[in-house]
Amino acid sequence: TVRENGDPPRVRLTRATPAEAARRDAEVAASQARDARARQGFSVAIKKLVDSGVPAVGHNGLFDACYTLEKFLRETDGSLDAARAAFDEAFACPYYDTKLVAQTFLDAYAGAGSLRPAGAGAGEEGE
Q1: What average pLDDT does the segment 30-44 reach?
Q2: What is the DSSP letter of 56?
Q3: Considering the entire predicted model, what is its pTM?
């Protein structure tokens, strides 16, 4: 069509060549693949760490590990049995919580009487 003042139309349609159409299809596929990876988000990094088999170490990290499991690796139905099974499956590598390790050793040493409260003398027990 021609515009009222006689100028040629602003929009001009042309058919893409097969090479141009193939290039556009490849760009769309690459964009969709990027979007799919972005939707996976940080779970990809977590999965790589878990698959490495390297022991995971955290301080007071049991809550963090459970949160990571639920938000990034898999959802559970909320039951304790499902959470335990999911944790065992998702974290196949050893997991150490230094708070629990420290507490275990503290209890062992305190039970042996080797640790005394601050200010207690060498021969007296603190309350």
Answers
A1: 83
A2: E
A3: 0.44
